[in-house]
Amino acid sequence: MTTHAAFKAPVFxxxxxxxxxxxxxxxxxxxxxxxxxxxFQPLLADPEAGVxxxxxxxxxGIVVPSHLHTGAVHGYTLKGxxxxxxxxxxxxxxxxxxxxxxSSMHTFCVPETNTEDTVVxxxxxxxxxxxxxEGKFISVLDAITFQNLIKTCAKAQGLDAVxxxxxxxxxxxxxxxxx
Length: 179
What we know:
It is built from 1 helix and 11 strands. With 179 residues, the chain is mainly beta. The strands form 2 sheets. It has a 6-stranded antiparallel β-sheet with strand order 6-5-8-3-10-11. Residues 34-125 form the ChrR-like cupin domain.
């Protein structure tokens, strides 16, 4: 691995021999991945860092079950509109940036009156813990679950392996046989 920096920094840096970059035009949409009308394009799923990045695509009238975030979330609305059931007067529209602190809980809603899909770029730290209308646990969606969801959706849609960024890989600093 090489570094392509113009100078050697006086600090330790990670070696990087290529720029990790994707174009969403090249990433297939995982259709109906979390239920009818809830689609996504995976960008990053790094279980070790506990972070995911995704383009979420939501049909008009979609309601995502109430969920608790175990980490912070950043959201940037690209198209359409949406709101949280708990904050109906704070509608997110194209250009809206939203920060959700860790341990926030809410219900994602897309107005039925929308004439197009709503598209939001999310960076999610930790996971989402989903609950039903009675407050009973449904599921957890974190980076490792997200990786498996990508495989399952790709297979169901007859797609080849989907390109996204996976993050690091845990391993021993010294191979066990070399100790």
